[in-house]
Amino acid sequence: MNLPDLTVTDVRQHVYCPRIPYYRYTLPLERPVTAKMDLGREEHESTSAKESRRTLKAYGIKEGERRFGVDLYSRHLRLRGKLDMVIFTRYELIPVEYKMTSGVGLHHKYQLAAYAMLAEHTFSCTVSRSFVYLTPEKRAVEVPITAAMRERVRRVLRELRRAVWNERLPAPTPHRGRCTGCEYRRFCGDVLAGGA
């Protein structure tokens, strides 16, 4: 099997539930699109338009240049992604992701760590922090980027490639509440039957 480059979305989904990106790469199906996914896409577009008119006060920054929808790629990591916003200040580069949620999950933090790694590669700099902008609350939450997070991202990439290459179904998330709205739920017979 010829494995394609992975995406930052794969990293986020693998941390959320390792089966989601596994199914995406191994099932010969169009990815089901849920109403929640459509709503999230619309919210992202709306937030980008509003952000371009706001100051950087929500991030505690006085001056900086914003770029939206920034494509990032690392040949070394074989990883790509499109970041919602990057803030360039005189001293640092800060990745920002918009989320239509009221809290920051572990999967969001590792998504930002993956974006930080791509931004470091693309712009030849070190990223020490990032933000999740919670759109329902109109509030930015700072997420520090650490060496341990970078290593976890590398481990996620290795685990995902190994699972897809060996066509070995990963264990599902232990958080069963996440399965309710999952677009791949019907493929997890062991979870639905109460196993795994």
Q: Please state the CA-atom Rg, rounded to the nearest Å.
A: 17 Å
Topology pattern, helix = H, strand = E: EHHHEEEHEEHH
- Strand pairing plus helix content: what structural class? alpha/beta
N-end to C-end Cα span = 27 Å
Range of helix content: 25-40%
- Overall pLDDT level: 89
Q: What is the count of β-strands?
A: 6
Number of helices: 6
What is the fold named in CATH at topology level? Trna Endonuclease, Chain: A, domain 1
User: How many separate domains make up the residues?
Assistant: 1
**What overall geometry do the principal axes of the alpha carbons give?**
globular
- Tell me the major beta sheet: 6 strands, mixed
InterPro entries: Cas4_exonuclease, CRISPR-assoc_prot_Cas4, Dna2/Cas4_DUF83, PDDEXK-like_dom_sf
Keywords: Antiviral defense, Exonuclease, Hydrolase, Iron, Iron-sulfur, Manganese, Metal-binding, Nuclease
EC number: 3.1.12.1
Pfam families: Cas_Cas4
Brief digest:
This protein is α/β, with parallel strands linked by helices.
Descriptive account of the structure:
By secondary structure, the chain is α/β, with parallel strands linked by helices. It has one domain: 3-Layer(aba) Sandwich (Trna Endonuclease, Chain: A, domain 1). It contains six helices and six strands. The chain has helices spanning 8-16, 19-26, 35-51, 106-123, 147-166, 189-192; strands at residues 6-7, 65-74, 79-88, 93-99, 129-134, 139-144. Helix 1 runs antiparallel to helix 4 (106-123), helix 1 (8-16) packs across helix 5 (147-166) and helix 4 packs across helix 5 (147-166). The two termini are 27 Å apart.
